[in-house]
Write a structure and sequence with these properties.
- The chain has about 900 residues and is α+β, with helices and mostly antiparallel strands.
- Helix 6 runs antiparallel to helix 15 and helix 20 packs antiparallel against helix 22.
- Strand 1 and strand 2 form a beta hairpin.
- Its EC number is 2.7.13.3.
Length: about 900
């Protein structure tokens, strides 16, 4: 059937078309905008923008714009092209056909769902639109808004955690760097670490490329070993020769450091964390002290040698005097020589005396210099004397560790009683006893706090070294120490924050990542595991294109380039990651800008597939429902005709059954009477001889069965008509007791054990005679079809569910197989010939139950038994 297009409505003569148009334009509840296209000057045909001509009052209110805006469409909505709305306008104008478009516009200060309808009108384009903010939001939209709100809150919290972690790392008073991957590429370097190489670039470079001067110094091997084994390495006062000025000149720098493996959620090593601090000043101070001590020892040895030479000279002089007394004859000859020798001796004595005085002055100077160095050293230094470890010397830096305490001249346990039994005191004793130097890094020592006397946790790095006397025996302990409490607490806070950030991002159902300027992943949370079936750590330094695939990458390439250009990007896209894995996503790219340079961006991806599919399904279902409604109208008419026909047919069948059962009663009664008359008329010898008697008996039995069948048909006819019998609240226990009396002879004959558990069963809303018939049929069947090889046990129990009352009749009789169960409730169906019956009882039971809105089920196994479950309505609730 075709429908001709309707002709335009004829307006009354008194209603001018122009006035009608203006009136509709002004009072319309939907927004109306009239545009003129802007063409590309180069070709004059390509539409590059639209200018506003007029907005109706509804559009002015919904868009917060004037009646005649001076901006163009793309100037008003810069993201219109990205969201597809600009192309929609162009398509509607070029084709000249009506076009519609649904959009969730979340850019340029707008955040609403819009339905747009557009059509070319003369030289311009008329657009009608609705805004969901002007009407109640749907449940789907409200849920989506709540989801977006939660995402924004989570994103803000994640960003705050990231900034806090970044601040802690960058402000830490130690050199911190993070290396990732097998090549140990620098991903994070704090300012103190960067100072080690000046202006040289470290971030993004592998270790061996960034530090070429460390080749052969053993550091590469240590770090690679930590990455390979996951075992932490501690370095103490290890020297590294560094090119700190990038001039090619290497200088020694001493470090205490920790190389510790970083792991992902699966406990796999992903990189190495470097935590180091420069101890060059402490090492150089200690070396200088050792050098000065060596010089003093050398000078003492030289003075001892000088004294020995003077003693030898005195002996020579004494021998010479004896020779003079013994050799007076030679006095004249040797007098000159003796005078010369005395002069030489006096000169040598004078020279040695001056040398000794000079050495003594140098020793005193060196001692004062050492004392100055000791007292001014930046490290905390003290000397403990004797087995009781008495403070013999304490420099100011050491004294500052314990303000307000008197240390000099006191045993260490008297000056610092809180370290009794602590590791630090135990190692002091061990160093004094063994002479083996002991070092500790970040050792926790609870010390009494000045002022309130409370114990306070403090951390120290220190070296305990034995001191030897001139005989080579240990007479004290030399201590070099410095407090690292702030560094340790900063590191602990940093580690806790980093762990908290990792746990937080892993717990979020949002994909969170960091992409650098090379479009490579530098961070990915646990959600990436589900989507890409890869450990997030394996994604690091991998190009985005390789992970997403060429097709999906093509959908977001433009957005990625905008994000790396420093633009905050929000968009939705359909992402065909794999042939069997397509997702609809809502994504935000948040630029990471430092000193005006974009280092990368944070990516937050939310799966909105369910919302999109639901929206599409709703639209598809609406279309299908419209078509189905039309079909249903036709089908309902057909069904109405069919139902009327079936109703007439059922009435005819009921009338036939009733008429047949009624009309057959008289003929069968006549046949029965004739058979009895025939038996009486036949001679006695004929009745007893041959087959006449047995034949008559069988004929009478057949008549009885026929009469019973007619009776059953009558009952079935009544049951068919009784679709809504009168119901009453019936006590199931009373019904069972009544039926039990009727079946008492059969119960006694079979020796059956009957167990009844219905005391707590509520009243059943059901026709009383029908309920009695149900119980009677089920119980009599259990008695009839009992197993001959075991005592019969029958159980009747009742229980309730949320909406039903369930009666169970269970026996341990013959049972039936599954193929027979399917035909159990059909009319005249029997499976055991050794028991009399018509095969109509269970059919009637099923009909009575279903007519009352219930159902009956059977569960049976041959040789085990059968259970019938009858479900009645609980009060007026419907049957499930």
């Amino acid at each position: 059937m075709s429908i001709s297009p309707a002709s335009p409505p004829q307006l009354p003569d008194w209603l001018p078309p122009a006035e009608l148009l203006h009136t509709v334009f002004d009072i319309s509840l939907t927004g109306l905008i009239f545009y003129l296209p802007v063409f590309d000057p180069a070709d004059g045909t390509t539409i590059v923008d639209f200018t506003f001509v007029l907005l109706n009052p509804a559009a002015q209110r919904m868009m917060s714009m004037p009646e005649r805006p001076t901006l163009t469409h793309n100037e008003q909505w810069p993201h219109s092209k990205a969201h597809g709305t600009f192309d929609f306008h162009v398509d509607a104008f070029v084709t000249g056909e009506p076009r519609s478009y649904d959009i969730n516009y979340q850019a340029d200060g707008y955040d609403n769902y819009y339905r747009l309808v557009a059509r070319r009108t003369g030289p311009g384009l008329l657009v009608s639109f609705t805004d969901t903010s002007d009407q109640p939001r749907t449940a789907v939209e409200l849920a989506l808004r709540e989801s977006q709100t939660r995402e924004k809150v989570a994103r803000a919290e994640a960003e705050a955690q990231r900034q806090q972690l970044q601040h802690l790392i960058m402000q830490a008073p130690a050199c911190i760097a993070s290396l990732q991957g097998p090549e140990l590429t620098f991903t994070l370097v704090n300012p103190l670490y960067q100072q080690l190489v000046g202006e040289r670039q470290l971030t993004g470079k592998p270790l061996r490329e960034a530090w070429p001067e460390l080749a052969g110094q053993g550091f590469f091997e240590l770090l690679e070993g930590v990455y390979r084994t996951g075992e932490t390495y501690y370095g103490n006062e290890q020297v590294a020769y560094l090119d700190q000025t990038n001039s090619g000149r290497l200088e020694p720098v001493y470090f205490n450091f920790i190389y510790q493996a970083t792991r992902d959620a699966a406990n796999q090593v992903t990189g190495v964390l470097i935590f180091a601090y420069d101890v060059s000043e402490q090492v150089k101070a200690r070396q200088l002290i050792e050098q000065q001590e060596q010089k003093a020892n050398n000078l003492n040895e030289e003075l001892a040698a000088t004294n020995e030479e003077l003693a030898a000279t005195n002996e020579e002089l004494h021998a010479s005097n004896e020779e003079m007394l013994a050799s007076n004859t030679q006095l004249t000859r040797v007098q000159l020589s003796l005078n010369q020798l005395n002069q030489q001796l006096e000169a040598r004595v004078t020279e040695r005396t001056q040398a000794l005085q000079l050495a003594q002055r140098e020793t005193e100077r060196q001692k004062q210099h050492l004392e100055r160095l000791f007292m001014q050293a930046p490290a905390a230094i003290c000397i403990l004397n004797g087995p009781e470890l008495v403070f013999e010397l304490v420099n100011p830096a050491y004294q500052q560790l314990f303000p307000g305490r008197s240390l000099l001249g006191k045993p260490i346990l008297e000056a610092l009683p809180e370290i009794t039994g602590h590791t630090v005191h135990q190692t002091f004793v061990r160093v004094y006893e063994t002479g083996v130097t002991h070092e500790e890094q970040a050792l926790l020592i609870p010390l009494t706090r000045p002022g309130d006397g409370m114990l306070e946790n403090r951390y120290f790095n220190y070296i305990q070294q034995a001191r030897y006397n001139e005989h080579g025996h240990i007479d004290g302990v030399l201590v070099f120490a410095f407090e690292v409490t702030e560094q340790v607490r900063a590191r602990q806070a940093s580690e806790a924050t980093a762990h908290q950030l990792q746990v937080l991002t892993n717990a979020l159902p949002v994909l969170i990542a960091y992409v650098d300027q090379q479009q490579k992943y530098q961070f990915a949370n646990q959600a990436y595991q589900t989507w890409f079936d890869q450990n997030p750590a394996d994604l690091l330094d991998q190009p985005v294109r390789e992970i997403l695939g060429d097709t999906a990458y093509g959908e977001v390439q433009g957005y990625i380039e905008r994000g790396l250009a420093g633009e905050l990007v929000d968009f939705e896209a359909r992402m065909p990651y794999r042939q069997d894995f397509v997702r609809h996503i809502r994504t935000s790219y948040v630029p990471d800008v430092h000193d005006g340079q974009v280092a990368g961006f944070f990516s937050l991806v939310t799966d909105i597939t369910e919302q999109v599919v639901a929206r599409q399904q709703v639209q598809h279902l609406n279309e299908e429902l419209a078509a189905i409604n039309e079909e249903l109208q036709v089908s309902n008419e057909d069904l109405r005709d069919t139902n009327e026909q079936l109703t007439r047919t059922n009435v005819d069948l009921d009338n036939f059954i009733y008429t047949a059962s009624h009309d057959l009663k008289a003929p069968i009664s006549n046949i029965e009477g004739l058979l009895y008359a025939l038996r009486e008329e036949l001679p006695a010898d004929v009745n007893t001889a041959g087959q006449i008697g047995p034949i008559l008996t069988r004929m009478l039995d057949s008549v009885d069965r026929f009469k019973r069948t007619i009776g059953h048909l009558t009952e079935v006819s009544k049951l068919q008509k009784e679709h809504t019998p009168t119901s009453a609240a019936v006590d199931l226990a009373a019904i069972i007791s009544d039926v039990r009396l009727d079946l008492a002879p059969l119960l006694q004959e079979s020796g059956a054990e009957l167990l009844v558990e219905v005391a707590h069963c509520p009243s059943i809303l059901f026709p009383e005679k029908n309920l009695r018939s149900i119980v009677y049929n089920l119980l009599s069947n259990a008695l009839k079809y009992r197993a001959p090889d075991r005592p019969l046990r029958i159980g009747l129990r009742c229980h309730t569910t949320a909406q039903q009352i369930v009666l169970e009749v269970r026996d341990n009789g013959l049972g039936i197989d599954e193929t027979q169960q399917a035909r159990l409730f059909t009319m005249f169906q029997r499976f055991h010939a050794h028991v009399e019956g018509s095969g109509i009882g269970l059919y009637m039971v099923k009909k009575m139950v279903e007519n009352a809105g219930g159902r009956i089920e059977v569960s049976s196994q041959p040789g085990v038994g059968t259970t019938f479950s009858v479900y009645f309505k609980l009060n007026s609730s419907p049957i499930a």
